[in-house]
Specification:
The chain has 261 residues and is mostly helical. It is built from 10 helices and 2 strands. The longest helix has 23 residues.
Amino acid sequence: MRVMDIPSFPRPIEILDLETLFAARLNDTVVEWPCQGIPLLGYMCHPNDETERHGLVSLLRSWPNYEGSGQPPVPRRVNRIQGNWLRVADIFHSYCDLIDGQHQERRGGPSIGKAISLAAAKTESRGTGEANLWKLWSGYKDVAHLVAAACLVRREVCKRFVGRPPRLNPTQFVPFQMVHLMPDLVLAVALEFERIGQAKGEDPRSEPALDPDTHWRIPSDINVAPLPPPFREIRPQDIKILNDRRAGNRGRANKTTPVSD
């Protein structure tokens, strides 16, 4: 079992008013919770590379030194990492949507394989074939609950501030910045995603989406109340995609990719 080394918030936090929270955090250049947000970003960007993680954390902790003297250095590959996050978030959120709607119960229940099939079918962008999505899932599956939460917060900010941006430039409405500015909100949503991802389905063959031995758990004493995320409706065309999946080839990326379905 792996637990993230993130200090607990000094007081209990229960987020009840997103509008007020967004107005405060997105109109202020002061980062309120750097002791939580910076290490959280380290785990999310480099879940299985301790050296890269420590390097990123050190870089982010140096940012206050650049105030008034130019732009701080940008983390390496941050744009690519965020692009990968968006795809992994779609996979994991789709998995949670299937669970929430109690879909595919007669076909072994929800699975990551089915969620990847949906994600691949919904977009024709480059790099969104099932084989590549399996590869991305393999790289970020141990932080999928955190990634899904960050991308959901970013989507909510974009929706609420369309046409009326706050002080923060809209080009900064990216998952990385949401974690940096609102780690308490990201963790609150991620707690509920984690609960769902840890649960085992009723089918005896099913496995939880989050591997109990390897996924990065949120510390039990983090001092943040869970905030249930909104789930999306599974459309009839999505159900058809799942029903049309061929037996024996359900989301298999290649011969070396393990698939639990």
